[in-house]
Amino acid sequence: MTATLWFFVFVQMAMGGSDTLYHHEGTERLAWRPSQKTELRLHGVRNLAYALLFAMLGWSEPHGLFAMALIALMAGELVITLWDFVEEDRSRHLPATERVLHTLLTLNYGVILALLVPWLWHLGAKPTALVPAYYGWISVLCAMAAVGVIVSGLRDLAAARRCDRLVRPDPAGLCVALPGRQSVLVTGGTGFIGQRLVAALASAGHEVIVLSRNRAKAMALGNPIRIVTDLGQIAATARIDAIVNLAGEPISDSPWTRAKRQRILRSRLKVTRDVLRLIARLERKPVLVNGSAMGWYGLRGDEVLTEAGDARPCFSHEICARWEKAALKAEALGVRTVLLRTGLVLDREGGMLARLLTPFEFGLGGRFGTGRHWMSWIHRDDMVRLIIHAIATPALRGPLNATAPEPVTNRRFTQALAAALHRPALIPVPAWPLRLVLGDFAEELLLSGQRVVPQAALTSGFRFDYPTIDAALREIVGAHRAG
């Protein structure tokens, strides 16, 4: 093989590895999406084919039938790739970076075929033999690439087998507490919590209005909903029974630079002011369920916190306090207002847990810092059910802790996640580099927490489907089907 051909082979290795790590395992998290079962199977088979190709090219010179078999293998890989393109377009929306990378991979593979097939065809005329060969560092790289794609291929095939256990029933069951046919306006309906809430309401036959600046993203929700890009598009005579205000800049997707802090706060206050103006115009007043977070309480160590607890200053408290203060102005308009002090919302489709699943599944997980800080959490389906409960329960108003009744320490959480995945959790993340790189972001979100209990929810009669961390994580990873 010529140096030119090896160059294009190594480029293919590098681009394929980047696509797998960044897109498939990173941003898209294909292994945890049951809709991608066929795509995962295709990736698994293709990766195993690549493993055979890399191993044979790096450590042998194939003659006769072995050379012909490699040509057939490469033709089969091309068929799988074309099938994969069709499956991807059918089952998901690819980000622009993935589309570009797939195009480059295809073009590069075409160059490899043009250079490699004539050489293999020439070798095919020789007597059948697999002649051992060693090309120094080239052989070593081929061996490393073969091992990598074997691991990736087996992982994809195992994930495809798991997909059937990840399919959930119709989300309409999350709305059984909401009687009749209600009209609900959701801001932040394309977010992690909002998507599941919108799906549940629409599936249950309720009228759903979603406020979104990105109409295309909102249309991807795939439900019979009304989309508005501005609340001024809603008439004063419109019937709206409830408003769920969840919109705001994500708080945990990047470090808290000064500009990020401003976006976090301003985005929440702006949408809330717009909601208040809408409520003032509406002839019939709705109930308002407004977002907040357990960060309202500040950093409190081992102290057990109910809705009656006080607060300690930090950035998380400032966000929540100002957001709640703005929302409570609705009370003066005669509107019952509920303030959702949300904990860590757990599900495989987003949030903190989605970012942890891959490292934990590969046995690379562990506690943050000492692991003694508290994590108050809630399963996403229980979060949706609690929002519905808040709408349907007239006695609820003011702060409502949206957390499961059994908060856990970070050490206990990592043990439970590792157990659900049947993996060890032996690689802790030291506190000092997190503090050095992320500052207050790490201190407030990763290394400290609150021990919050949902007293108001339990007193009002709400019952959690997932009250314990073990039950929640088993359902999320497909180790247990909720009954």
Q: How would you summarize this macromolecular structure in one to three sentences?
A:
By secondary structure, this protein is α/β, with parallel strands linked by helices. It has helices at 3-27, 37-59, 65-91, 96-124, 137-166, 192-203, 215-219, 258-281, 315-327, 351-361, 380-392, 410-421, 431-438, 440-446, 455-459, 469-476, and strands spanning 60-63, 129-132, 183-187, 207-211, 226-228, 242-245, 287-293, 304-305, 337-342, 344-346, 374-375, 377-379, 398-402, 408-409, 451-452.
Describe what this molecule looks like in 3D.
With 483 residues, the chain is of the alpha/beta class. The protein has 2 domains: 3-166, no CATH class; 171-476, NAD(P)-binding Rossmann-like Domain (Rossmann fold, 3-Layer(aba) Sandwich), CATH 3.40.50. Helices cover 52% and strands 12% of the residues. The protein has helices at 3-27, 37-59, 65-91, 96-124, 137-166, 192-203, 215-219, 258-281, 315-327, 351-361, 380-392, 410-421, 431-438, 440-446, 455-459, 469-476, and strands at 60-63, 129-132, 183-187, 207-211, 226-228, 242-245, 287-293, 304-305, 337-342, 344-346, 374-375, 377-379, 398-402, 408-409, 451-452. The strands form 5 sheets. A 7-stranded parallel beta sheet has the order 5-4-3-6-7-9-13, with helices on both faces. Strands 1-2 form a two-stranded antiparallel ribbon. Strands 8-15 form a two-stranded parallel sheet. β4 (207-211), α7 (215-219) and β5 form a beta-alpha-beta unit.
